[in-house]
Amino acid sequence: MSHPITTHGFTPVPANPQTLLSQAPISSKPPAIPVSSTPIPAAPLALRIQEYARTHLPQPTYHHSLRVYHYGLAIKRHAFPEWAFSEETYFLACMLHDIGTTRENLHASKLSFEFVGGFIALDVLLTRDNASDASDDIASRDQAESVAEAIIRHQDLRDVGAITALGQLLQLATVFDNIGGHAELVSDYTVQDVVRIYPRLGWSSCFAATVEQEVELKPWAHTTALGDFKGHILANPYNKYE
């Protein structure tokens, strides 16, 4: 029988990625991992959440969410093969991690977008819009809470303490796609294949504008803890693919 801590990625790991990476048995360059090697989960829950993301997110954000999924699994296979959480749980986190950045959700709450996103994700994962009696497209409480925790903390970059393995992978992959951080963990071939299938669509300008808008609306937002985050986004070396 699977254990919820392991299956859904609650295993604690260092919050500081440098500390974590110094402990990882990385002895080679990252392998070329095409999108075809990290398929999207086909379970009813994953498909429902993918459709929710597709219809609620602007297309650049939706593509970003899919890139984060494929980059994250490439990072996991290369650097953290011992992490045993399900790819479905990670996929759910990827699909919903920026749901708080939509114009509607930014304006609907005074909470920082990551917190709004975590609460929305918890609700969406545990309920459905239709009247179907099926239960296979509803997350378990443990799975939903793991996703919400990862979303709430996916910009909680810090040097001390711990974070869930799921949350750390979401952080590593979003930092990679947003500012080009941890580039040593993903091969150029993987990047080229991912952006071929899920083009960036001006993502850096789009996300930089979202960051600017959130800080204007909520000068207390957690995004302010990241310093010149907008500048780092616009300086992303992977902007060459836009």
TrEMBL record:
Coiled coil: none annotated. Signal peptide: none annotated. Residues 57-188 form the HD/PDEase domain. Pfam families: HD (PF01966). SMART domains: HDc. InterPro entries: Cyanamide_hydratase_HD, HD/PDEase_dom, HD_domain. It comes from the Eukaryota. NCBIfam families: cyanamide_fam. This is HD/PDEase domain-containing protein.
